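Morning. Coffee machine broken again, so started the prediction first thing and wrote up yesterday's gels while waiting. Chain of 285 residues, entered below exactly as on the submission form.
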Amino acid sequence: MTDPYSVSVITRTCNRPRMLARAIESVAAQTWEQKQLVVVNDGGESVEDIVAPYRDRMDVVLLEFSPEEKPGRCLAQVRGIEAASGSWIAYLDDDDFWFPDHLQTLMEAAKETGAKVLYTDANKAIEEPDENGNYVVTRVEPGPSEDFSRAGFYLGCYIHLSTFCHHRTVFDEHGGFDPELPVLEDLDLFYRYAFDYVFHHIKKVTAQFSVRTDYTNAITSMRREFVETNEMLAKRYLHMAVGDMMVMLVRGRDQINGLYNMVTALSSRVEELERRIADLEKNES
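Came back before lunch.
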């Protein structure tokens, strides 16, 4: 694909065929036609039978690795990007899905703003296993909706990978996911890309991601690694966020000063009203 707004969608999967089928269907249903799906089978059973029906509906690339060749989460994503032909790269976890206007929302914003890195909002679906072992959504909640701030990453990652999109040149400049990280490779990627780019936030829900109560999600099943890696990344990229932190402090100080002035003015007004009331009462007596 040579279109300047063509999008390659990278989906890594491993032995989750039912979820993968839902994710692929949501890509096929996108209103944005200039799209390519790259499925990377990270050492699981073949998914050719799941992918095959979609080859007539869109450009599909399938990379399958045997258990012995299994590259792992990070390298699987990188292999997918290397095989992609789109000008833009988007990500969709195999247990998530997009609403039909997801890619169109991103690309229209890219055209309008000139941004090279963008993200939307997503709903969070809480899933529990039923008696047959199938996951059932028990409730859906709004996910994070935060405007871009480098310092904001220190309060928690507010961007979900399945809402994230960037130009191919950003990957060429800064690389992909770090295979040395056991978890939070997406947060590390965000930090690195944020060093040179301002992310454009589109305040629109265009996706849904899953959180499972039996802790089978990669992050929830590795809580210790999550905490340790989060602390390590915070130290690694602290220098990058200092500027934003100072701006936040100055804005906070200005807001406090503004509130103080407002309270002072109100206090003066109250005192004036009390004096008038006292004068009226004195005159009446």
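The chain has two domains: 7-236, 243-285. Going to sketch it on the whiteboard this afternoon.
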